[in-house]
Amino acid sequence: MTDRLGAPRAEPIFERLALIGVGLIGSSIARAAREMGLARTIVAIDRDEGVVGRVRDLGIADEATGDALAGVRDCDHVILCVPVGACGTVAAAIRDGLKPGAVVSDVGSVKASVVAQVAPHLPEGVAFVPAHPVAGTEHSGPESGFPTLFLNRWCILTPPEGTPPEALERVRAFWTAMGSNVEIMTPEHHDLVLAITSHVPHLIAYNIVGTAADLETVTQSEVIKFSAGGFRDFTRIAASDPTMWRDIFLHNKGAVLEMLGRLNEDIALLARAIRWDDGDALFNLFTRTRAIRRSIITQGQETPEPDFGRRRPD
Amino acid sequence: MTDRLGAPRAEPIFERLALIGVGLIGSSIARAAREMGLARTIVAIDRDEGVVGRVRDLGIADEATGDALAGVRDCDHVILCVPVGACGTVAAAIRDGLKPGAVVSDVGSVKASVVAQVAPHLPEGVAFVPAHPVAGTEHSGPESGFPTLFLNRWCILTPPEGTPPEALERVRAFWTAMGSNVEIMTPEHHDLVLAITSHVPHLIAYNIVGTAADLETVTQSEVIKFSAGGFRDFTRIAASDPTMWRDIFLHNKGAVLEMLGRLNEDIALLARAIRWDDGDALFNLFTRTRAIRRSIITQGQETPEPDFGRRRPD
Ligand SMILES: NC(=O)c1ccc[n+]([C@@H]2O[C@H](COP(=O)([O-])OP(=O)(O)OC[C@H]3O[C@@H](n4cnc5c(N)ncnc54)[C@H](OP(=O)(O)O)[C@@H]3O)[C@@H](O)[C@H]2O)c1
Ligand SMILES: NC(=O)c1ccc[n+]([C@@H]2O[C@H](COP(=O)([O-])OP(=O)(O)OC[C@H]3O[C@@H](n4cnc5c(N)ncnc54)[C@H](OP(=O)(O)O)[C@@H]3O)[C@@H](O)[C@H]2O)c1
């Protein structure tokens, strides 16, 4: 398992790449695409002129603008890097600027809803290859990005039927060059998989942090002091961007509620095992769950260091 | 906030310290007590002769034995570092070896049950100062310990009424010298606080990892591949020692089930907000939870680095 990006490409995959939304993901793509030579010109687009200025200062794109319609003109790859609830509006805003043969993509954490929002706005001759890089941190904004964010992580593509094979291949090559492993599935299956591997974990984390803050028997100051017992782990993902996560839950409602139902069934069994002193049931579950972490580490999706390799006093 | 232990003491606090159970916690105490000069002699006791041999090889104690009764003889501080379910048996086994004036303690993650198990076995003239260092990793065994485990972490003491003040002060000084902040509370309040900051988070983590492994619509291999979306965070605490955690749940039943009930009420509200598109309710919760992580970081209980400072490709 390598921990660096490879040598840059001799020839770019795209001539002109537009990134709409230059937060954690958009700015990480800008940095990785620049480092790997994936586009001759990178155009960063953000609705917030303050962010446009910061992007210029960071020097992570060749051009930066607040005007999405003008920004996408002549681009052969356009990636929406905005919250999933904003994708339809952004697609509508750029439709008249998209050039024939352009490949549009996105990075949204939900896929069926994004496809439904975006596809209707795309003109004939423009291909749509939705993507979701399964990689991130709890931080946001253009300063938080880094070029190796996608390295050794999976990127899921959910191309609609009829997607031109060469559009799919270029998008695949683009993500592969940034170090990702690419997998293809339907938007619906994606949404189910991510509900259990990402969305419900976030919901559970937000929930426990919220509940702990509201208890009348334990003070918030106690919760904070004694958080090293396990609670603090949950606060990381419960510190992720509120807009992004609101949109994810509203746009992947069905799968999230279904997975939550499953979780509730299983927690009821666990509560029962505790109430009736069924130590064996607990012990068996706790042994199985250990094995799953080992597989995640073996497959390079997690650090083998104890405590996530958290900064440790020396 | 310092990240090193201070200078060793000129005079030890205890003459002869016995640690019963030399796993993560016992071996970390051995290392820290040695480094800080907290005891003239450290006796490591483990029921497993193989572990006794490894402890000798590691050189973390002055003496190592498999015989608890002989090991505690002449010791003025004896700390039980075994799973909470084993504390009563261990106390019974050492009672006839305890010297008058000795101070017995433990490190169990549950306190009311440990007090109930241990106190009846202690002879007149032996003080009991139960302790719980809120610090750990998901690893176990004598190799996993390290001397700064307790640095900048809280250690909770739950002395019963009538504990001699000098016994309490020596235990407090012992933990303070290992870098901990000491707080005193009743066993019952401890168990409620830890239920929400540690026990229920572990239960939730074990539960989601178990549920994910058993789904029929998403394969285990998909769960592993796409775990970087949040799921993998939960697998860390769900990889903790099964015996230790079985015992914690069985011995802190009341508080764990009570806190789980609270969590269930709140998750029902969240599910309703998702179902009825109440984006504001979600957004408000997600903003509040962010603030809690900030406090935990400010108070030195968590690393400020994104993604826990997980090893990042450079
Ligand atoms: N963070 C992760 O871990 C992660 C991982 C995989 C995929 N994703 C997906 O990536 C996308 C971006 O997330 P991120 O983490 O990069 O978020 P971020 O750092 O918060 O950046 C979001 C970007 O979207 C822009 N934006 C927000 N609302 C908008 C609107 N209504 N119209 C136009 N632009 C808008 C923001 O503009 P301003 O500059 O005005 O704020 C900002 O540039 C989301 O769809 C998310 O689901 C995130
Ligand atoms: N790990 C944490 O994060 C953490 C944090 C705070 C407090 N604690 C508490 O610390 C205590 C020890 O935990 P640990 O993490 O150090 O566990 P560990 O690394 O698994 O070590 C447990 C030790 O207890 C011994 N032991 C187990 N069952 C026993 C029995 N029935 N009779 C006698 N000895 C027995 C083990 O002996 P063998 O060598 O034979 O296995 C081993 O030496 C537990 O009460 C736990 O609740 C743990």
Layout of secondary structure:
Two copies of one chain form a homodimer.
Chain A: E1 14-20, H1 24-36, E2 39-45, H2 49-58, E3 63-65, H3 68-72, E4 77-80, H4 87-94, E5 103-106, H5 112-118, E6 127-128, E7 131-133, E8 154-157, H6 165-177, E9 181-184, H7 187-214, H8 220-225, H9 231-237, H10 242-251, H11 253-275, H12 279-298
Parallel strand pairs in A: 1-2, 1-4, 2-3, 4-5, 5-6, 8-9
Antiparallel strand pairs in A: 7-8
Pathway (chains A, B): Amino-acid biosynthesis; L-tyrosine biosynthesis; (4-hydroxyphenyl)pyruvate from prephenate (NAD(+) route): step 1/1
EC number (chains A, B): 1.3.1.12
InterPro entries (chains A, B): 6-PGluconate_DH-like_C_sf (IPR008927), NAD(P)-bd_dom_sf (IPR036291), PDH_C (IPR046825), PDH_N (IPR046826), Preph/Arog_dehydrog (IPR050812), Prephen_DH (IPR003099)
Would you give an account of this structure?
The structure is a homodimer of 314-residue chains. Chain A has 314 residues and is of the alpha/beta class. The first copy, chain A, has 2 domains: 14-185, Rossmann fold (3-Layer(aba) Sandwich), CATH 3.40.50; 189-309, 6-phosphogluconate dehydrogenase C-terminal like domain (6-phosphogluconate dehydrogenase C-terminal fold), CATH 1.10.3660.10. Chain A contains 12 helices and 9 strands. In chain A, strand 2 (39-45), helix 2 and strand 3 (63-65) form a beta-alpha-beta unit. The longest helix of chain A has 28 residues, at 187-214. The first copy, chain A, starts with 13 loop residues before the first strand and ends in a 16-residue tail after the last helix. At the A-B interface, helix 7, helix 8, helix 9, helix 10 and helix 11 of A face helix 7, helix 8, helix 9, helix 10 and helix 11 of B. Bound molecules: NADP nicotinamide-adenine-dinucleotide phosphate (2 copies). One NADP nicotinamide-adenine-dinucleotide phosphate binds at residues 21-26, 46-48, 51, 81-84, 86, 90, 107-109, 132-133, 136, 140-141, 241, 244, 248 of chain B. Chains A, B: Residues 15-304 form the Prephenate/arogenate dehydrogenase domain. Chains A, B: InterPro entries: 6-PGluconate_DH-like_C_sf, NAD(P)-bd_dom_sf, PDH_C, PDH_N, Preph/Arog_dehydrog, Prephen_DH. Chains A, B: Its EC number is 1.3.1.12. Chains A, B: GO terms for molecular function: NAD+ binding; prephenate dehydrogenase (NAD+) activity; prephenate dehydrogenase (NADP+) activity.
